[in-house]
TrEMBL record:
Belongs to the transketolase family. This is Transketolase. Substrate binds at H44, H291, R387, S414, H490, D498, H502, R549. Mg(2+) binds at D186, N216, I218. The lineage of its organism: Bacteria, Pseudomonadati, Pseudomonadota, Alphaproteobacteria, Sphingomonadales.
Amino acid sequence: MTDTATVAPKADPMLHEDGSPERLAIDTIRTLSMDAVQKANSGHPGTPMALAPVGYTLWSKFLRYDPKHADWPNRDRFVLSVGHASMLLYSLIHLAKIEEIDADGNKTGKEAVSLADIEQFRQLSSKTPGHPEYRHTTGVETTTGPLGQGCGNSVGMAIAERWLAARYNKDGFTLFDHDVYTLCGDGDMMEGVSAEAASMAGHLKLSNLCWIYDSNHISIEGATDLAFDEDVGLRFDAYGWNVIHIDDANDTAALARAIETFKSTTDKPTFIVVHSVIGYGSPKAGSEKAHGEPLGDENIRLTKQAYGWPEDKSFYVPDGVIEHFNGAIADRGAKLRDEWVALTDKYRTEHPELSAELDLLLKDELPEGWDADIPVFEADPKGLASRDSGGKVLNAIAAKVPWLIGGSADLAPSTKTDIKGQPSFEADNYGGRNFHFGIREHGMGAIVNGMALSHLRSYGSTFLVFVDYMRAPVRLSAIMEVGAVWVFTHDSIGVGEDGPTHQPIEHLATLRAVPGLDTLRPGDANEVAAAWKAVLKDASTPAALILSRQALPTLDRTKYASADGVEQGGYVLADSDGTPDVILIATGSEVSLAIDAHEKLSADGVKSRVVSMPSWHRYELQDAAYKESVLPRAVRARVAIEMAGSIGWDRYVGLDGATVTMSTFGASAPLAKLQDKFGFTVDNVVKVARQVMETK
């Protein structure tokens, strides 16, 4: 297929008559998508053109959604995992007349996506970016683009519905019974995260979950058989899904029957395989040329001709299309929402405690006294591993916050993230709070994000070195500003005999590099308590808690500063009178090492200061006066101490400072030998401190 059209396609009314409301709505979605991509000179027109009948049928005939109340808790969720096909979603939002909700949850009286917004597709600061962004555009349920992530998110959303229903639905009060629909494509099916998520969804028998798979056999490089020729339907059958095939994406009646089958299935998720022609109706139909680039003016003219569309009109919405599409959705959705609101009003009387709890959950707030039982740890030279103190703090909070739920990638006994006395979330108990994600770090991350998008305070845990397997969802949690908590233990060479494959070196630097992610490495049990308390206060900032395998001394807080300083990210933990001669900055297991070095320096008459810096993110949010009080610019003799790479510490130690960090990789050895080899000893820290004092 060449870039320039040579033959006009034949008009193909197929299953709907020309001029019918259905045909007009479908072709409006197609032509808006073509025109927006062409004007932007960038984007993906082919998939929205192919899937317009699918989007139309699902939204107009089935989706439980009130366009006037896009945040209705019991609405169906529509996830566009094929985020590059964003113009399909923007067209649907526009035609449905979804009303905009601002960052504070208030309706603005504006359209969520206007025709003018569509004309600004892919432009800076527009409400129609190249890939859908949660919080940015009302009607977008999750940020998608990295393929497979939306699939994983949708499993988390389906889990959340099941958990909410198990906890809050009572006889005569069905508050939660919504479904989750996901539109996915060949790229999603190739990415491993979708396989991880699908396997778990099948295991959990999430019958409220429906994936609609656009099987068009085209990717950017060409036909998918260049690299992908498996029978995806058979794979999902093996996962335990109900698999339905539709031969033609234009067969809206067949799709409707398939969705009806989904809605009547009660023991497994549903996977609908829809065979489509990318760029349907255009001279580039069926070609990779219809995938990731504009069609071109002449091809658009010929395509509109094939649709029986005005060839000289761009961004054309025929009279009656919006009224038809909005009416089909709103007439159903508004009635259902009104009934739900009336039901919740009665629920407040019958179940006042659960109702009050649900109100807090949906507002992303915490119960009064949620932190009352967080333990205070007594000074102890032996101390305990921060994973152990973390488990104690987690359980103290979980007893007060029932919607704090999560689990690990098969490592709960090691990460200490199980909620004691609570059952597991399984197909026979959707009220469980402990999740067994299996050895699926990537899928776990995407699923935890989906749970957080449904207002649950969700967490996922694994060893820090395995964050490499789940970096995409960690990053997306920050982009979306959802309060997922990532618990990463075994945080350094302190894993000892496991050797280099399990010793994270560069991982702290890579997490700290993610904008909007609060990465905290607490130095003792009380800093762990302060860290959990700090991160749960903010439901719009995800956090990575970095915890140790080995025991950390619990510092004497009558002698040293309160661990409440964690709230500011960095604080003066130990000090001397007057301006310090040298500042020692440390995190995690190295905080106690810095304290020991400080005591030795002080005994030798050196005015030393120790700064505990568990969170760079939080520290950078403080004002200049606070930062100056912690790290005075006049004190240029500084040493950073951390069992990780040195990258990034230059911002705090400056050109005259030094780091005691991991500069090379060591072979497997006992921790004591590794500490000595890399200089993590009191004598070496003192030595380096004296060196920077002499050379500053």
